[in-house]
Known about the structure:
Blueprint: E1 2-6, H1 10-23, E2 26-31, H2 34-43, E3 48-52, H3 61-71, E4 76-80, H4 85-92, E5 98-101, H5 106-122, E6 140-145, E7 148-153, E8 157-163, E9 166-171, E10 175-178, H6 182-187, E11 194-198, E12 201-204, E13 210-212, E14 217-220, E15 223-226, H7 229-239
Amino acid sequence: MKIxxxxxxxxxxxxxxxxxxxxxxxxxxxxxxxxxxxxxxxKELPDLILMDVHIQGEYDGIELADMICKEYTIPVIFIxxxxxxxxxxxxxxxxxxxxxxxxxxxxxLQRSIEVxxxxxRQNPTGKSEEWENDFLFQEHFFIKTRQRLDKxxxxxxxxxxxxxxxxxxxxxxxxxxxxxxxxxxxxRLPEQLxxxxxxxxxxxxxxxxxxxLQDSVVIVGDKHLPxxxxxxxxxxxxxxxx
Length: 242
């Protein structure tokens, strides 16, 4: 669990860092403005962001969260000393996973983080149910190949194959090599469409032509993909076979 802190008050940022370490999560970085926050996110996606509403720079925390939600699937815990209705309504529009008011004690902070982490574990897509109309139903994404960005329709992806920290995305027309692990990429794809059939394979359920139950093989076009014994029963339920 990689956590990014966006907080411009030193006292609170130090408390957040100490508690993250104490709880055993990975403190990714602490920044106090939107420019640095976006740079960290672009370099290494956090699993959770602790976001102060009032931060340094051109954009406040709510505006920054809105920018992040339009491009990434990263849940946010808002931290603020503002208790007015306007701030709450503005923050609510970007569907934070939690809302924590200053001043707070360590127990309040701990419970807020633990509840958020529990929600993420129950929903590995990285979004709360209220956010399901955001990235999860996005129709396209872009893959960088050298100095070019290729637009790929989510529905055209056949399957993905993992090899360490890299994944190959297969479509009917092309294949793309991405420097991203299977688990990270899985978070960014709609769970209602994709299923991990094997530790090294993620398949688009709509593209499955047949399943060889005897040999535990999923057939997509002319490709025969392995189906692990552990994932077999859940995958068959996903197919809703009769």
